[in-house]
Amino acid sequence: MDLPTTKNAEAFGTVGAVRNSADARPPRAPIPEEPLVVIEPGGRWAALNLGDLWTYRELLYFLIWRDLKVRYKQAVFGMGWAVMQPLLLTLIFTVFLGQLARVPSDDLPYALFVNAGLVPWTYFSSAVVSSGNSLVGSSHLITKVYFPRVIIPAAAVGARLVDAAVAFVILAALMVYYGVAPTRNILLLPALAALLTLLAMGVGMWISALNVKYRDVGVVLPVLIQVWMFASPVVYPSSLVGKWMWLYSLNPLVGIIEGFRASLFGRPFDWPSLAFAAALTLVLLVSSLYVFRRMEKSFADLV
Questions:
Q1: CA angle 214, 219, 225 (to 5 degrees)
Q2: 53-65 burial string, b = 16+ CB within 10 Å, else e?
Q3: What is the pLDDT of residues 41-72, one digit of tens each?
Q4: Distance (Å, rounded) from C-alpha 24 to C-alpha 230?
Q5: What pLDDT is recorded for position 237?
Q6: Residue 78: which residues within 8 A CB-CB, separation 6 or more?
Q7: Which residue of 81, 115, 137, 161 pairs with 90 in a disulfide if CB–CB is 3.0 to 4.6 A?
């Protein structure tokens, strides 16, 4: 029998060292049959988990900033469109409704009256439309990474709030031009703005969740928004409704828009309409959160 040569012995020693080092490694943990953590929305009465909005607040800020950059990046007037849209509508309605049709304006200059209704309405309508289409337009995010989906419509509403703040500058300039000084009622304006934001959030979440499953919602949404505008006291005062005011006030925007005018021009508030608008906003917001949470599981498959 031939004895191993020196080269074969060295090779045998190297293989043995590799085997010894492999045997010295700790054994791998066995892979469990079931996953340790499953990320999915809860059941029928799932928790709202509103703390997730605070946890993912940086993502919310980023999506708001992205929405503003994409919308105004290559626009010639940029953020000026946030001012021009209600201003042009004010001019059109003033000529055709204020001058030709002689629509009453509660003893205020019609341009100031209609602009005070257009600023909150423009914000609400644009926020509802953008948030209603936000999930469908963010399919590349929904299908690739997990995060609370409610952040997407919330970011759409937050981005439009920046536009409303810019448009409010023109409204303040009109008040100065017509010599209308604010009163202490102006202190309620932030509360009314918050109520309008929550209403837009509630309606937007309902529409965005339904739009993922039924794309007809996105098609009919602009028509519904136009109908909603003329069913709200935007270009005319609610006093024209007369005896049907109790039915007219079922529209939550009636109390909110008239509340805006009351806070700006020192008029008395319609507290029953405001109370009903606040109650309905709360119901819409909570119900939309529950529906959104229940449908969230299927968004990635349907979008």
A1: 115
A2: eeebeebbeebbe
A3: 444 444 556 667 778 888 888 888 888 887 77
A4: 79
A5: 93
A6: 72
A7: 115
Give the three-class secondary structure for 73: coil
What are the CA-CA distances from residue 179 to residues 165, 172, 174, 265 (Å)? 21, 11, 8, 11
Q: Which residue has the tokens 């008395």?
A: 268
Please tell me the least confidently modeled range out of 51-55, 105-109, 154-158: 51-55
Q: Can you count the helices (H) and strands (E) in the chain? A: 14, 0
- DSSP per-residue letters across 98-164: IIIS----TTS-HHHHHHHHHHHHHHHHHHHHHHHTHHHHTHHHHTT--S-TTHHHHHHHHHHHHHH
Distance CA(255)–CA(233), nearest Å, equals 9
Compute the distance between CA of residue 120 and CA of residue 106 in angstroms, rounded to an integer.
18
**Among candidate residues 189, 158, 174, 44, the one with its CA nearest the CA of residue 114:** 174
Planar angle of CA 71, 127, 215, nearest 5 degrees:
90
Residue written as token pair 């469990």: 32
Angle at 236 between CA 285 and CA 128, to 5 degrees: 25
The yes-or-no verdict on residue 18 having pLDDT over 50 is: no
| Residues 193-217: tens digit of each pLDDT | 999 999 999 999 999 988 888 888 8
Residue 47, SS3 per DSSP: coil
Helix 151-177 with 110-132: angle, nearest 10 deg: 170
